[in-house]
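User: Can you predict the 3D structure for this chain?
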Amino acid sequence: MKKSVILLFALILTLGLIGCSKKSEVKDIPVSDIKSAINTESLLPIQPIADIDAKEFHAFEKVKDKIKEGFVIQALINVKLQDVFVVKTDDVDSVKKAIEDYKSNSLKLFGDGYGGEENVDAVNNSILESKGNYVYFIATKNAKDIESKILEIIE
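Assistant: Here is the predicted structure, written as structure tokens:
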């Protein structure tokens, strides 16, 4: 009986060690590394770009105190859509909500056809996801390529 209890206790401790040693879901890296990789790989089809600190971006006004760091990249050409946002936060849901509101309000014209079919596709195929404490939003014609690069860096 004692051997069974000791064996059970050893099994529980072993499982506890395995569970506690699990690797983190994402790396903790500065978002500037992500931005550099996107720019270095020339993944942004439209140049020049506006590069804004996420805390200064109008769509994040209500959640800027929840943002640790982040960036917003947009096309300076007002008829072409090219949005790439990456934010590190402890409140993923609030930041995602702010981006959903931005998409519903500010990107409505692009989704309705302003600037051409490419913009409609960029809005309809936009990506809003989170991984760990990173939230990213991509609305551009090569959104999947940019998402792959982001995931490659943080995973």
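The beta strands are 49-53, 67-75, 83-89, 127-131, 134-139. The two ends are 46 Å apart (CA to CA).
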